[in-house]
Amino acid sequence: MLVLDWILIVIAGWLALGVAGIGALRNTAFVARVLFPAGAVLAVALAGFAVAGLLGTPETAVLALGLPDLPFHLRLDGLSAFFLLVIGAIAFGISIFAAGYFRHGEGTPPGLMCLEYHLFLASMALVVLADDAYAFMVMWETMALSSFFLVTANHRVPAIREAGFLYLLIAHIGALGILLCFGVLQANTGDYTFANMRAQSLSPLWASAAFLLATVGFGAKAGILPLHVWLPEAHPAAPSPVSALMSAVMLKTAIYGLLRVSFDLLGAQQWWWGVLLMAVGLATALYGVVFSAVQTDMKRLLAYSSIENIGLLFVGIGLGVLFNAYGMKALSALALTAALYHVLGHAFFKSLLFLATGSVLHATGERSLGKLGGLMRRMPWVAWLSLVGVLASSGLPPFSGFVSEWLLLQSFLFTTGLPDSFLNMLVPVLAAGIALVAALAGYTMVKFFGVIFLGQPREPKLADAHPASPLERAGLVWLGAGCVLLGLFPVQVIGLIDRVTRLLVGGGIADTVRANGWLLLSPSSIDRASYGPLVFLGVVSLAVLLTAVLVRKLYHGRLRRAPAWDCGFPAQTARMQDTAEGFGQPIRQIFEPFFRMRRELPSPFDAKPHYRVTIEDHFWHWLYLPVARLTSLIARGVGRLQQGRIAIYLLYSFVTLMVLLLVVKS
Amino acid sequence: MTSLLSQSINLFAVVLLVLAFAMIAQRRILTLIHLFTLQGAALAAATLIVGYLTGQHHLYFSAALTFVLKVVLIPILLHRVILRLNVRWDVETLFNIPTTMLIGIVLVIFAFNLAAPIAGLSTSIARGTLGIALACVLLSFLMMIVRAKAVPQVIGFLSMENGLFFAATAATSGMPMIVELGIAFDVLVGILILGVFMFQIREQFDSLDIRHLEKLKED
């Protein structure tokens, strides 16, 4: 039996679980304790088959679904297997977490939620398996719709409905771009299989058109500038497992699509495509991280952080395109390896962090950073695992984020070898931008972790915060373990990613990496740069241990708990801690032109002072509102046609028909 | 024999056209339904003959389908509707009938003019009748525009479908079976839905006059 068949069985299993959810519409216990764990088992099986597919040869299948004479073509190759691995591994953690997460009485009944959730998973798996434009679009839209319903699970809240609408709108703009892109790619042959598209050789003009359409289309789903506005609205609106799934996995399907179209179908020929992707990516990353640093809602903060990471991925892919266009296969493979590593790493740590916010939200009922604090004592599991995610997200060794960012910067160091003198001057400047983004990401994560988990509780009710349930913890542990293992064994992971880069650019770095042994990671040569995560971990752990022992010895193990130093104040309350707003203030000051800020400062004589600051996106006022106004203006004009009389409407059709007939005739 | 039969196609085509004019001129709903039934019968006969002459056997099936649907089933449905709604003798005027007839003549001339080059290209045996078929479509459309009541509009819609069907038979010896079945099914479902609509309109406004629907406009 082929691996692809097993994968299809897993997908069918997910669909069956979804249908079973309809059968137990309001039976929360059954859905949560039976269906979601079953889905998790299927997910881990999918991850296993994906690894098998990654190591095996490409397989194809034709599903007799869809329209007559238009079946679904499926293909399992390195690229799709890699993304299936991401889907399976992340869905396992999220499904286990969700089993402990869903409670009674939150909008959509749990059974329906189960259907939407598993449909979402199945459609994502089929998106990456699709081998013709028809199957791809059907699955892409299924994915968009099922996630829309998941986002609007709590549809009685108007703000959530609006967020869902915005999401759906931008998803459809993107889908239009993708559809047009496939239309260009098939080059008037009428055959929409990817095999045919691969065989076409388009003129540079049309290839560029297809590439730009794909960038807009997949960029809308991924959340690149200026199509990012849905992300910070939709992610906080959705239940936490859904936000985790969307941010960690669904955004990656857009990355998959971009890789599939620009490398596999178009061959990444033009150097300026790479420059465009890098420029857009860096702008997105910087924008995302700066906004992320000033957010006060924890899920919005993470959503903006996802925008930043997507930007980094675009930079990596752009660099890959650039090298590939100049025929530097090995360097292109290095840049793509960095991007794919980051796909995997981001999927793990972002889902971990989103799920952690879910646990905090359930424990405290509070999403605003200003009302949290000191949860480390109440929820130690969630806090420590969040720390893992936070460190990985900041790109610190020995976690996954460091490996990918290090590889990305390594590949930037080779850009001086580009044959174009402008490029080898300009591109290294982008590397500086990446470094800035990475530093700001660290800043943001310190804020996220410090404000939620450290310090004193800012509200009295936080004393009642209950720790996460065992299933929630299990899900978090899986994802946290992923972050750690990805950070500790990069050589082995690169061995898997190598299959993908060989498919995309015909080169890989695994051989070079393996030549240096499994302990040290060195993408080019050992003299140039190398990184030994296990050695690093060993040294750090040893240093920490040594310090602890020394401290114990020197202070004779005395431990004393006392009130913190008062600084001479007569009283000290939890409200006096540094707040999220306060922590983000320097960023707000430095990057002021990025924001559209409104501040209300209290007067000094106010007995009950209120401080309010709202931060808005410039794009909202520069781009979206004008478009919305224009649309409603046109709609009013068109509304004049609406007379309310059927005879008039029929007359419109009649006149149109006559005119068209006349045109045809002449 | 063959030439006689091909002449008879032209005859049936003319019958269709005359019936279309008759429907425009007819005010009474019951008579309209009778005219529609006749039109369906003529259409079925024409399809049968085209099928016989060209040896396209699936046209026999189309003819049978047309007969069952447009001569038996839909007229029965329409009779039941007007019986229940009690509008058998409803007289309605939105537009001066002689003027409408004059516009109709203009349409027929237009249709013939339009069909002339297409008919030259077509190889079907009934190609001369393409203009007539097109004229039937346009006339039925005109009828839908000038009628103020719901039932005649529905009949106009159905007779437009007759014209289209005839055009397809005349120009290309019929559509693929799957398309034909689809259209037949659509018409049947359409008439059921429109029937429900008519009851709803009546219930809402105590009349079938579609001018009441103008109130539904959004300001």
TrEMBL record, chain A:
- Annotated keywords: Cell membrane, Membrane, Oxidoreductase, Transmembrane, Transmembrane helix
What positions does the domain NADH-Ubiquinone oxidoreductase (complex I) chain 5 N-terminal occupy? Answer: 69-107
Main subcellular localisation: membrane
InterPro entries documented for this protein? ComplexI-like_HydComp, NADH_UbQ_OxRdtase, ND/Mrp_TM, Proton_antipo_N
Q: What sequence ranges are listed for the domain NADH:quinone oxidoreductase/Mrp antiporter transmembrane? A: 130-412
| Topology of this chain in the membrane | Multi-pass membrane protein
Where does it live in the cell?
Cell membrane; Membrane
Instruction: Give the transmembrane ranges.
Output: 6-25, 34-58, 78-102, 114-130, 165-185, 205-230, 271-294, 301-326, 338-361, 381-402, 422-455, 476-497, 531-551, 646-664
Organism domain of life: Bacteria
Q: What is this protein called?
A: Hydrogenase 4 subunit B
Q: Which organism is it from?
A: Aromatoleum toluolicum
> Gene name on record?
hyfB
Automatic annotation (TrEMBL), chain B:
Q: Which UniProt keywords apply?
A: Cell membrane, Membrane, Transmembrane, Transmembrane helix
Main subcellular localization, coarse class?
Answer: membrane
Is Transmembrane given among the entry's keywords?
A: yes
In the record, which residues are listed under signal peptide? Answer: none
Membrane-crossing segments per the record: 6-25, 32-53, 59-82, 94-119, 125-146, 153-171, 177-199
- Tell me the compartments it is located in: Cell membrane
Keyword Calcium present in the record's keywords: the answer is no
Topology with respect to the bilayer:
Multi-pass membrane protein
Protein name as catalogued:
Formate hydrogenlyase
Lineage of producing organism: Bacteria, Pseudomonadati, Pseudomonadota, Betaproteobacteria, Rhodocyclales
